[in-house]
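A brief tutorial aside. Many learners find it easier to grasp structure tokens once they have seen a single protein encoded end to end. The record that follows does exactly this for Luciferase-like domain-containing protein. Read the sequence first, then the structure, and try to relate runs of similar tokens to stretches of the chain.
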Amino acid sequence: MTQRLVSVWQPFFLGSESLEAAVAAATELEELGYARIWFSAGFDADVPQRYRELLDGTSRIGVASGIVSIWHSSPAAVAAYTQDAERAHPGRFLLGLGTSHAVIVEGDGTDYTKPYSKMVSYLDALDAAGLAPERRVLAALGPRMQTLSRDRSAGAHPYFVPVEHTAEVRAALGEGPLLAPEVAVVLEADPDAARATARQYTAGYLALPNYTNNLRRFGWTDDDLAGGGSDRLVDALIPWGTPEQVAAGINKHFQAGADEVAIQVLNGGDASAFPSEAFRALAAQLI
């Protein structure tokens, strides 16, 4: 492991209607020393301009897609977007790609079949368009996608995973490739309140087979996955407590082999509000 980068994963950056507010939040994170800002590209055909707007409005901080769905955006459009961002801001935009989820893809009228093969052909098309593998990472959950992220990209950006998964991915990647898991956190010391906030987040993801199948590989049972997650599962996925306690949970991922942790602060599902106080408190502990 050659790096220890503390980053931010926050839906606010796509959800905020105010570009001024988004750039102000990004500027504050840059000043605090965060390495990169991650957020979803959503599920439209076009890659959101918000990534470029944040790059244009800041000077150092990286920006990454977590993730662009390979079922929604074409390789040609994605390659052109990434190459344009690289020309304007060398080394600062990282393309995160993922296979999304059957319920989302099929809800848009597309047959969700052979997602691994779809990713391979998508990467082939990016190669043909001249996009360097160093400018992309994959949302790798299972072993085959982990290997693909090692061989065909700069590394892996897993989402909604316990520390044991981080250790598994580091072993699969070996030394060198980037490992940047997303980790959601709750800055709340009361156990009942913290877990209640966490379950507003976990309940939706525990309805998606990609995530539940991955958790089952690590021994989590149907009882653990029900009702927004058992206390034990919630505690394993979502560090909560004081800033010091949350930082200790983040550090477990670094100890397991992460180069970068993308922290998502949960604030009761309000994507329109940026939790700046929480990120200031965590910066004091981690950066």
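Self-check: The two ends are 17 Å apart (CA to CA). If you spotted this yourself, you are ready for the next section.
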